[in-house]
Write a structure and sequence with these properties.
Elements: H1 4-12, H2 33-39, H3 52-63, H4 76-106, H5 112-140, H6 144-150, H7 168-198, H8 202-231, H9 234-242
Length: 243
């Protein structure tokens, strides 16, 4: 049987000739054109200052919101104002609970029973608005630095609103301001419960802790919902009612 090399010319014609591959390593290997263009800062498709990528990055960086500049620092009086605002908010939560219950009984306001609860809820909304206004005035009278730190958020991805912005001093200051605002509500829940426990009223203390926390949370949430509805544009409310 003839070898493949002998039968190649008969089957496929004349054998082509190839130049031998040069396996000698070079000092400066040449990458492919696409890779070379991506790494060359001066090429049209690279990462230089005139490249589309660089221009898009500069525009994005320029459009990013700048962090607000704080004027001055946090004063001791700011903590007192935060404590006062927290106490007023606590009173607003207490008032907001019966208003919420009255609105639940108001329904659509068709029957005399529902109309009674509607008038009751409207009457209770006045003290809630007044208390909220007092709390807002106290917080707005704080220094700009204290107001900024007191309203920072824990879980936001906005770099201008996160509580983790700034150094350790700013973080501790923000934490103390927020804890001061929450102190009245915490004391109203924990202090009576602790006194009951000390007096041996374990079941009563547990019942009070659960009931007070639930009542204050319900009143606070109801107040926030009512304020959002009151501040929403009329067109938005009409669109929501038609859905």
């Amino acid at each position: 049987m003839p070898a493949f090399e002998d039968a190649y010319a008969e089957l496929f014609g004349e054998r082509p000739t190839y130049d031998p591959i040069d396996t000698t390593p070079t000092r400066t290997p040449q990458p492919r054109g696409a890779i070379r263009a991506g790494l060359d800062l001066s090429s049209p498709g690279g990462l230089g200052e005139d490249s589309p990528f660089a221009k898009a990055y500069q525009e994005l960086n320029a459009s990013a919101p700048a962090a607000p500049q704080e004027e001055g620092g946090v004063e001791w009086g700011d903590y007192g104002k935060q404590l006062g605002a927290g106490a007023v908010n606590l009173a607003g939560s207490v008032v907001g609970l019966p208003e919420y219950l009255a609105r639940q009984g108001a329904g659509e306001g068709q029957t005399p029973y529902e109309q009674f609860f509607t008038k009751t809820a409207d009457a209770l909304s006045g003290p809630r608005r007044a208390l909220r206004g007092v709390a807002n005035n106290l917080q707005q009278s704080m220094s700009p630095a204290a107001l900024d730190r007191a309203t920072r958020e824990w879980t936001t991805l906005d770099p201008t609103r996160t509580i983790w912005r700034g150094g350790p001093g700013e973080f501790v200051s923000s934490l103390m301001l927020q804890a001061t605002n929450a102190a009245p509500s915490s004391l109203a829940t924990l202090l009576p419960g602790a006194l009951m426990l000390r007096a041996g009223m374990r079941n009563g203390a547990i019942t009070y802790l659960g009931a007070s926390e639930g009542a204050l949370s319900t009143g606070s949430i109801a107040n926030n919902i009512a304020e959002e509805i009151e501040q929403a544009p009329e067109d938005e409310l009409l669109q929501g009612s038609q859905r």
